[in-house]
C-alpha cells in the first residue's frame, strides 16, 4: 500500500511540474491565433495576400504576436513602437542568427562574418573587414584590377558580338565581379569559344 501511495505521489509531482513548466513557458510567449499540430498557424494566412492576413491577425492579437509557421515558432512585430523596442532597444539580443545543424555545416561552425553570433569575435571580424578590405586605401589599391577586369569584359563582349554569338551577360558579369573581389581571374573560357565549338 505504501509503495502505491509513494508511486502516486511521485507521478502527481512529476505531472504538476510538467504542467507548471508549460504554463510558465506559455505565459512568456506573446498571444497568437490557434494552430494545428503539423501546419501550425498557416491556415490563417490562406486566402488573402500575406500582408493583409497579418494585418487582420495583428488587429486581433496585438502588435506582437506568435505564429507557428509549420513547427517553427515565429514572433511577428507589426507596430513602429514594437519594432523600435525589438530592433533598437533590444538590438544585441536579436542581432544573432538562429543556429541550426545545416547552418553550422555551411558556415564552418559560424566562424565567418555573416553567420558569426553577435559578440566579441564578430566585432573583431567586422573591424578587420572594415580596416583591411573596405578602407579607402584598399579600394584605391584595387582600382587597377577592377579596370583590368572591366576591360577584359568589354573585349570579351566585343569578340562575342563580332562572331554573332549571344552574350551570356549574367555569367560574364558574375565572373568579372568574382575576379575583381578575389584578385584573380575566374574565367571559364570565353563565350565566343563555346559558341564556335557549338557551331563549328
TrEMBL record:
<keyword id="KW-0503">Monooxygenase</keyword>
<keyword id="KW-0479">Metal-binding</keyword>
<protein>
    <submittedName>
        <fullName>Uncharacterized protein</fullName>
    </submittedName>
</protein>
<keyword id="KW-0812">Transmembrane</keyword>
<dbReference type="Pfam" id="PF00067">
    <property type="entry name" value="p450"/>
</dbReference>
<feature type="transmembrane region" description="Helical">
    <location>
        <begin position="6"/>
        <end position="24"/>
    </location>
</feature>
<dbReference type="GO" id="GO:0005506">
    <property type="term" value="F:iron ion binding"/>
</dbReference>
<dbReference type="InterPro" id="IPR001128">
    <property type="entry name" value="Cyt_P450"/>
</dbReference>
<dbReference type="GO" id="GO:0020037">
    <property type="term" value="F:heme binding"/>
</dbReference>
<dbReference type="InterPro" id="IPR036396">
    <property type="entry name" value="Cyt_P450_sf"/>
</dbReference>
<dbReference type="GO" id="GO:0004497">
    <property type="term" value="F:monooxygenase activity"/>
</dbReference>
<keyword id="KW-0349">Heme</keyword>
<keyword id="KW-0408">Iron</keyword>
<keyword id="KW-0560">Oxidoreductase</keyword>
<keyword id="KW-1133">Transmembrane helix</keyword>
<keyword id="KW-0472">Membrane</keyword>
<dbReference type="GO" id="GO:0016705">
    <property type="term" value="F:oxidoreductase activity, acting on paired donors, with incorporation or reduction of molecular oxygen"/>
</dbReference>
<comment type="similarity">
    <text>Belongs to the cytochrome P450 family.</text>
</comment>
Amino acid at each position: 500500500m505504501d509503495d502505491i501511495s509513494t508511486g502516486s505521489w511521485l507521478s502527481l509531482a512529476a505531472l504538476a511540474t510538467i504542467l507548471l513548466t508549460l504554463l510558465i513557458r506559455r505565459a512568456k510567449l506573446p498571444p497568437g491565433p490557434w494552430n494545428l499540430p503539423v501546419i501550425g498557424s498557416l491556415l490563417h494566412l490562406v486566402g488573402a495576400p500575406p500582408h493583409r492576413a497579418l494585418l487582420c491577425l495583428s488587429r486581433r492579437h496585438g502588435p506582437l504576436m506568435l505564429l507557428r509557421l509549420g513547427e517553427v515558432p515565429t514572433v511577428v512585430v507589426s507596430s513602429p513602437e514594437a519594432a523600435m523596442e525589438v530592433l533598437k532597444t533590444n538590438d544585441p539580443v536579436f542581432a544573432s542568427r538562429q543556429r541550426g545543424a545545416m547552418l553550422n555545416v555551411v558556415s564552418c561552425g559560424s566562424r565567418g562574418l555573416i553567420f558569426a553570433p553577435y559578440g566579441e569575435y564578430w566585432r573583431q571580424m567586422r573591424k578587420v573587414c572594415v580596416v583591411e578590405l573596405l578602407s579607402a586605401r584598399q579600394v584605391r589599391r584595387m582600382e587597377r584590377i577592377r579596370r583590368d577586369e572591366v576591360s577584359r569584359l568589354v573585349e570579351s563582349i566585343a569578340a562575342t558580338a563580332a562572331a554573332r554569338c549571344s552574350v551570356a551577360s549574367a555569367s560574364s558579369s558574375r565572373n568579372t565581379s568574382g575576379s575583381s573581389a578575389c584578385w584573380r581571374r575566374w574565367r571559364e573560357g570565353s563565350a565566343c569559344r563555346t559558341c564556335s565549338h557549338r557551331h563549328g
